[in-house]
Amino acid sequence: GAGVSQSPSNKVTEKGKDVELRCDPISGHTALYWYRQSLGQGLEFLIYFQGNSAPDKSGLPSDRFSAERTGGSVSTLTIQRTQQEDSAVYLCASSQPPFDAEETQYFGPGTRLLVL
Amino acid sequence: AQSVTQPDIHITVSEGASLELRCNYSYGATPYLFWYVQSPGQGLQLLLKYFSGDTLVQGIKGFEAEFKRSQSSFNLRKPSVHWSDAAEYFCAVGPFNDYKLSFGAGTTVTVRA
Questions:
Q1: What is the DSSP string of chain A?
Q2: Which chain A residues contact residue B100 at CB under 8 A?
C-alpha cells in the first residue's frame, strides 16, 4: 500500500513568514510522529500523536511551533514567524499500535525547509 | 535520558568490500535499538531492530548488527557492499515501553567502484 507522504517536498520562505507542512500517514496507523533533521544532526523528536489522546508536545523547540491532526489522520506542522535556524528537513512517521518503541515507525520522504 | 553516538561521519568503501558502521548508546536499561538507512530524497527505511534475544540481528539488504551490552554498542555490518548501499545510515535507541527514539547524527557511506 501507499507509504507516508509529505508535502511540499521543498519549501523556501522568507524569515518571519509562517509555513505549514503536511503529513499523510499510512492508512490504519494511529500513531504519528514529527521529527526535525538539521544539517549534520540526527533526528530530533518534535511531537507525537496517538489516536484521540492529547499529543506529546515535549519536543517542540518553541511556541512558534504547533501541530494538529485532523480526524486522526492527516497532520499539519505549523511554524510561525520562521527563523533561519528553522531551516531543516522535517520528517513525519507513522506506526501501528501499541505505540511503544517496539512498533516500527515508517517515515515519509520529508519536507526540506529553507528560511532565507 | 538515552543518547546515541555514531563516531564516523563519513566512510568510503570499495564495492565488494566489507562495511562496518559503529554505534554506541547511552541508556540505563535494556534499550530497543534500530538501524535506519536514508537514500537521497527518500525517507528513512528500517534495516533492522533489536529488542531482546539473540544479540546478532539480521536485517534487509544483507545487513546484520550485533548488540554488545558490555560495550554499549550496536554496530552494523555488511560482508560485501553494493553501489546501491551508498546512503546515510542512522542508529537509534528507544527506551522500553516508550515511543521516543533518539537518533545518532548519521554516517554517510560512499561506495567507490
A1: ----EEE-SEEEE-TT--EEEEEEPPTT--EEEEEEE-TT--EEEEEEEETTSPPB-TT--STTEEEEEGGGS-EEEEE-S--GGG-EEEEEEEE-TT-STTSPPEE---EEEEE-
A2: 45, 48, 56, 59, 101
